Amino acid sequence: MNKPLQIISLGAGVQSTALMIMAERGEITPKPDFAIFSDTQTELQETYDHIEKLKKMISFPIITVTAGNIETDFLEAVNMNDHRSLVGRTATPPFHTKYNGGKGLLFRQCTRDYKIHPIQAKIKNMLGYKKGQKMPKDVIQAVIWMGISYDEIQRMKDARVHWIKHTFPLIDRKITRQQCLEYYDKLKLERPVKSSCYFCPYKSNAQWKHHKDNQPELWDKLVKFDEAIRHGLNTTRSVGRDGKPIKEAKIYVHGSCKPLKDVDFDKKSDQGKFSFMDECEGMCGV
Where are the domains of the chain? Predict the structure, then answer.
């Protein structure tokens, strides 16, 4: 029986990058066969630049896969102006919603469809299996190293398929995110930015404020995107959890359910209830 592939799931953020470097330096073994990055095509430019730098630093391959552009797919569904088409036609990010006097979240499908599934499909293909072909039972064919740190232990999850095993080298060694940052400083390496889709609703106010104050082109893009998705649920053919027709339903990227351009990121009243740590799939942003 062949040994299972050893693979790093590369989110291109602080933790998974630290894991890459530790593996390259032989501090975590065995050496991976490759790392794999699933591109939503909406990452920050800093993340794409960082991956190109990693390719020059790391001796094992970094493979990129994609399920398409999540921004384009979502906006196309929103423009249909039909809630049923929106949640059934595209993998929705957990954007914040406001309707019938209450607040809620869209059902999150983005991590599954734009991160997990493309990675699994690529690994299956590399193992020589065709799409739709059943995998042998009770055989682990790939071990995926997850870049989740000890302080984020709640994000640990088993693989959703029987032929993949998740491992958590940083957690096994009780390495925290802060220790990862100190690791970069010790090696005199540049610290990676937190990776995520540019419009990710799990961003903190500090991150939104950084975009606004320091990245005018990105901020303008964010504001336009936020406005573009606003009325994606505006249809009387849909009903809310209360069973009543949804009226004047609106979608927002920010947890305050205010237009992004109007949010005061320094006011507690404009703080969203959610943070990046609520993203618990263990695939994004690590």
Answer: 5-68+110-187, 70-108+199-278
pLDDT grade, residue 104 (50/70/90)?
confident
- Tell me the per-residue pLDDT of 178-201, one tens digit each, with 9 for 90 and over: 999 999 999 999 999 988 999 999
Give 226's contacts (C-beta < 8 A, 6+ positions apart): 199, 252, 253, 254, 259, 260, 261
Residue type, 255: G
For the chain, how far is it from start to end, CA to CA, in angstroms? 32
Distances from the Cα of 28 to the Cαs of 24, 59, 170, 188, 189, in angstroms?
8, 15, 9, 20, 18
pLDDT at residue number 275: 47
Measured CA distances, 147 to 16, 174, 241 (Å): 4, 12, 36
3-class state of residue 228 by DSSP? helix
59 band by pLDDT with thresholds 50, 70 and 90? very high
Neighbours of 169 (CB within 10 A): 19
Q: What is the pLDDT of residues 24-35, one digit of tens each?
A: 999 999 999 999
For the segment(s) 5-68+110-187, the CATH number from 3.40.50.620, 2.120.10.30, 3.10.20.520, 3.40.50.720 is 3.40.50.620
| Predicted pLDDT at 42 | 96
Asked if 197 and 171 touch (Cβ cutoff 8 Å), the reply is no
